[in-house]
Amino acid sequence: xxxxxxxxxxxxxxxxxxxxxxxxxxxxxxxxxxxxxxxxxxxxxxxxxxxxxxxxxxxxxxxxxxxxxxxxxxxxxxxxxxxxxxxxxxxxxxxxxxxxxxxxxxxxxxxxxxxxxxxxxxxxxxxxxxxx
Length: 132
Hints:
Elements: H1 6-26, H2 41-45, H3 55-75, E1 80-82, E2 88-90, H4 93-100, H5 104-115
Antiparallel strand pairs: 1-2
């Protein structure tokens, strides 16, 4: 049996293998995850240095939490969040989160740039320190 388009077939297989394995080898050259700077005046003044939820929860779910907050606060008028431990917070990126995490470049941008995320928060919210 003679294979007439052997070059095209082999090239197609090579391209297919590269495309299928791309996600596996693409991340190999990335650096380690960034370390976050929690060195802000607001955090330094806190007696109990903890976020609204546990650190592991916030790392994995802050984007879902902020999306839920937006929907509930803007669309439903529900502006209070009760944490798992019973503490109550205002559902506000500017009024709650950015009170402590005011160093956007050191806190937000480092992780978002590392993972290639482009959050839409700043299309509505003022970047900390931008307007005095």
